[in-house]
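TA notes. Do not distribute before section.
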Amino acid sequence: MKKSLFCILVMTVMIFPFVQFSYAQGTEADLVIINGKVITVDHDFSIKQAIAVKDGWIIAVGTNGDVQKFAGKKTQVIDLKGKPILPGVNESHGHTAAFASVRPPFAIDARFPNVKSMADIKAAVAAKVKELGPGKWIRGRGWNTALLEEFKNNPKGMPTRKDLDDVAPENPVILTDWSGHAIWANSKALQLANITRNTPDPDGGKVGKDANGEPNGLLEEIPAFALVMKAAPLYSVEELKEIALKGMQEMNLNGVTSASEPLGPGADQNDFGIRGSRVIEAYRQLYKEGKLTMRLQIQMLYGKYGSVTYADVAKGYQAYKFPTDVDPFWIRCSGFKIFADGVPLKGLYTAYMWEPYLVPPGNVYGGLVIPGATEQAKYDELIKMVEFGQEKGLQVQVHAIGDRAISSFIDGVEKATKKNPWPKLRHTIIHGDFITRNDIKRAARLEMALGGMPTVHSLLADVLPSYMGEERTAWQLPFRSMIDGGMIISMNADAPSTYPDWRAGVQSAVLREASKSGKVAGPNERVTRAEAIRAYTWGGAWQDHMEEVKGSIEVNKLADFCILDKDILTVDEHKMKDIRVLMTIVGGKVVYKSSEN
């Protein structure tokens, strides 16, 4: 079958061997880093002392003596004085622009412990109303009923529109929960969106109703979000550039140098356009202006964000053309993202499970969020989308948390690769919390990628047992079993679902302690520090088909580094989250420097 030029370009960038560079010993480096503990994350996880950089690439790694041969009169020299340096962190699944957009000054930060109660949220909304004036849209993110005083001991308790009406009667308000799978809106927002008692649930979503059948202000899952978002104004490209710059700045100060971000026309009308194609244009313009401080791997979003069909993917693939005037080492497209299921959170229970949740009436399993009249029809649609990706040479990344959703996706990869064995696209399970032992074997055999969120295990370890049981809670994100089973994994924060602090992520993966109680959930699934660090660096590069040029500190790789104030390999395991990033370097240039340097 003849493939489009776009497909050929994507496959070439993804698969064709990268050019190797060779510099003579007399070459004068642009940057030399000496006296460090260089955690290379190479195959042997070797430790070196110094690095030399030329034209944004690593040209030497070794002892001070090895590297100082490349130092000249114009060479910048950084003396680490024994401090550790490791490859730049690869946020293997996240939303950099969206992360910035839901934080001050753009929105209310409703995360715990910034807000601990309804009174805190109301105060924050009231302050925003005063700042913006009547009629302006107010948005925010981060509320979590498991942590809010009024609801944390009430398994069925949820906020309603009336709670927000008290402080914002004339301003439309939309507050997204911490997971990104529930929206809490006030009456004004519902009114502007014409959401009434007669508004039906969209495929894969739910419009919450009170005892009288009136909308209660809660909308579950992304397909339902579009119902209210259609009334909200979209960000301009200039606004998005400002937001993206703020997001990259926050990522850089955490040592992040690369990120995979789903964006595209399917999200143009969703969430103020913060995940739409305008964001791609904003990044393109920032690249042209020399203002990018992070490398971006973009997965296209087609159709209706969160409820995509095969027809949506096929149409979107033909209609939208990814920019070709950007350096693929800075911005590149690997394929597309779709959603298989939701989340295993209190009150939602939308992750698709083989066994039911432990909530009345005892037959709640979640389900696929793909449009379809039956679960079989939804499953068939998922298979078709995966087969389309494989046929076109596009990596398919699927949000799948429940074990049954993961199994369904792997079924699709098996069928797709049987039809078209080449190329090896590393189709990706995003999250993969409850992957079964058998599916670990299947995913490893199929050379699939998986990006999990260690900090989510810590956040949920205290609350999951009440509706999923102790056994499933202990098994959530079984990183040890995945690695031992032959899978290559990455780790991420899925910002803004959680803050992009990979040090806290390493600590969570190593200890598997609940963030509140400190109890250990699933000690057999602990990993070593080295394994977690590899997952946050090289694992993300492998997922991106970029392990030949990033993810470790080796000659002929991109000069992307993260310098720390303490040695993450030896510091007390309970203090890894307290390690500070002193400097972040991308392409041999300093993009973040701590004021304490």
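Switch to the second chain here.
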Amino acid sequence: MDPRTLAYYQNHAADLTERYEAVDSPVARYFPLAFVAGGRVLDVGAGSGRDLAALLAAGFDGHGVEPTDEFRQAAVQCHPELAGRLVAGALPELGEPFGGGFDGVLCSAVLMHLAEADLFDAALALRRVLKPHGRLLLSVPSARDDVGADERDALGRLFKGYAAEELQLLFERLGFQRIGRWDNEDAQQRAGIRWTTLLLELQTGQGLRAVDQIEGILNRDRKVATYKFALFRALAEIATQEPRVARWLPNGKVAVPIDRIAERWLRYYWPLFASPHFIPQSQSEGAGSNQPVAFRAPMQALMQPFALQGEHGGLSAWQAAVGAGQLDAHLARLYRDALRSIAATIRSGPVTFAGGALESGRVFQFDGQSRSVLMSSDLWRELSLLGHWIVDAVIVRWAALTERFAHRQGISSGEVLPLLLARPDPDHVTAVARGIYLAAHADRCVWSGRRLGARNFVVDHAIPFSLWGNNDLWNLLPADADINARKSDKLPTAELLKTNQSHVLDNWRLTREAMPQAFDRQAAHLQGHELRMGKAWEGELFARLREAIELTALQRGIERWSGPVAAAA
């Protein structure tokens, strides 16, 4: 604590005690919201004991620390029940008063008396005395008109102008989450002074937030292959595009099917393995070892029949074939072999070792019974909220790591990036969808109702291909060429979707009737389960489409499209 401020409180404890005790505790109203009933709560900077006494009166097991002898003596005189519950102590070196392990901490009107150099250590000290999921209730001035340019009042007390948002961010970086905020006038009715009270919860007993774990793994974990990048890319894409395939478990874990991860890996590595230049994806491959990545051989066997069918080793032809379910028995077996090898690599590689260099330890597990990768719900939440940023960061770092592996081959990250960004060409799949619609005599634009003919009939991606790279049948709808050009890479508004729901469903029925296995398999990825019998599937799938569009628009700031009338205006 600032020495001049501490000296003032020591010299004026008696007068200040009388002033504090003349008004009710301004934070006592929040105690029932902030702390678990009957919990152990530490009052840091107890002063006259007013707030600590209020804690005891409310049924909490309250204890306090106060740096000045004079305040501690006055507190016990005013509140005899505090005897044995107050000890000397101050931030930033709080130690472990009363053995630590508190359910809650009250830190009211204290942090503004700390210099900037002490603030981080003080936040760490408050964190150390809390149990995991413990609560921190703190208050600081949000406005004071009696502080000079030197950040001191006329009495010499230090009043640092820490904004509540600044403090919130500091504690969030230490694993807290804000769950409450209140802005109030001064309890002593002093003009020009206002207070902000924050309620924060410690989300984990470990030192890293989930997003920091991701960053730590990508930066600090030993990387002898590109697998950890591929795993985080797949999980981030699934979290943002197929969140319902994940299962929330009662133990605070989330399970993601390993087969869905493996399918994405196959698409990521296909352009790399199809390159005319050998692009190593492990340290041993880069060094010329005869031990290639485990799934390279089964993938190349699968890729061979498509090698001459277009760019990136026939990636688009492969996507179209597997999407339509048009694999003969031989190709189906090669596909299963490749996925089985990829899944084995995922289990034995990044799932086993990711996080090994962190203080928090490894972050994934594998559940053999459900064939799922398990992670904390906190980690899944970060992947869901920040997925598109994580994907971009991972791709750049993947390219840089590949350049390091490939230094003997003279391959740069600039050559690798286009391969990591490669997507199947949508033209073949949209041509298939167009053929289905024409054969079924679908002759109306889904967005405008315009009649469609051979010259103006195109297929629109409801969620633009540029955003998701998604060619699933549920995402492909008939549209007028001019209307499609107006929509471009925008997302339809909720109102436009609702207005045209019946048209969307009519077209889904056509594509499902023509390609039932492909449609159901692709829809299951969006819904998280197989389509239900009867017509219930239509409303549920439409709800999932609306949800996907709204979340994509909100998280990525995508422009909305209100339909042809608004576009023409």
